[in-house]
Specification:
Mean pLDDT: 83
Number of helices: 2
Strand order of the largest sheet: 7-15-8-9-13
Low-confidence stretches: none
Distance between the termini: 84 Å
Largest sheet: 5 strands, mixed
Number of strands: 15
Number of domains: 2
CATH topology of the largest domain: Immunoglobulin-like
C-alpha cells in the first residue's frame, strides 16, 4: 500500500518538462524547412531554437512557413508579412490632424509646411520608412506585392466631394526615404485616403 501511495503522490506532482521547439533551415538561403519539437530534429545540423508561441503559430498554419526565414547573422527566425494591394480599404477616410489625434505611433505621417509650400509623406521605421517615434519601434520584415500604391486625395476642408488633386505614392517611394510634394499651396484643405495601413496622421504647420 505504501508503494501505491508513493506512486499516487508522484503521479499527482509529476510535470512534463516544457517542450522546446526547433526550426530547421536551408543554410544557403535561410529558408525555414520544418518547425517542431526539438526531439524530432536531433540529427539535423542546421537548426535554431524557436519560442513556443511562434512555433505553434507556424505549426497551426497561422503563419505560413514559406514566409519564414532565418537571419544567420543574428541567428533568429524572422517572419516576412505579405501586404497586398487588394487589402486596401475601399472606403475613403479623412486623415486626422496631429493636434486632434490620439495616435502615438502612426504608420503613415504627413506634414504640411505652409511657408515652404511642401507636403512631406513618410512611413514608419517599423515598415522600413524614415518616420521615427519617441518610443521607438522595432523594424519588421515585409514582402510587398508589386508596386503597391497609396492615393491621397487633397480636397476642400472636410469636403471630399471638392477634389483639388490626387497624390500617388508607392511603397517603394517610402522605403528608406520620404516623398516631397513641392509647390503644394492650399489655404485650407483635408486629405482623404483608402487605407492600406491602420494609422495615418497629418501635421499642419
Amino acid at each position: 500500500m505504501e508503494e501505491i501511495e508513493d506512486f499516487d503522490d508522484w503521479f499527482t506532482n509529476f510535470k512534463l518538462p516544457p517542450v522546446k521547439y526547433i526550426a530547421v533551415f536551408d543554410p544557403d538561403t535561410g529558408a525555414v524547412i520544418s518547425v517542431g519539437p526539438s526531439h524530432v530534429f536531433k540529427d539535423q545540423k542546421h537548426k535554431i531554437s524557436v519560442d513556443k508561441e511562434l512555433a505553434e503559430s507556424i505549426i497551426n498554419a497561422e503563419i505560413k512557413i514559406d514566409n519564414c526565414v532565418v537571419d544567420m547573422n543574428s541567428n533568429t527566425l524572422e517572419v516576412a508579412e505579405i501586404k497586398s494591394v487588394y487589402k486596401i480599404d475601399d472606403v475613403l477616410h479623412r486623415i486626422i490632424s496631429k493636434k486632434d489625434s490620439e495616435i502615438k505611433k502612426p504608420d503613415i505621417y504627413i506634414k504640411y509646411d505652409s511657408k515652404l509650400a511642401v507636403l512631406k509623406i513618410e512611413m514608419s521605421t517599423e515598415f522600413g520608412g524614415t518616420r521615427k517615434t519617441r518610443a521607438g519601434i522595432k523594424k519588421r520584415n515585409f514582402v510587398w506585392a508589386g508596386d503597391t500604391e497609396m492615393q491621397f486625395f487633397i480636397t476642400e476642408y472636410n469636403d471630399p466631394n471638392l477634389l483639388f488633386e490626387v497624390v500617388t505614392v508607392t511603397i517603394n517611394d517610402l522605403i528608406g526615404k520620404y516623398k516631397l510634394i513641392t509647390d503644394f499651396n492650399y489655404p485650407k484643405f483635408s486629405v482623404y485616403t483608402r487605407r492600406l495601413f491602420k494609422n495615418y496622421v497629418i501635421e499642419y504647420r
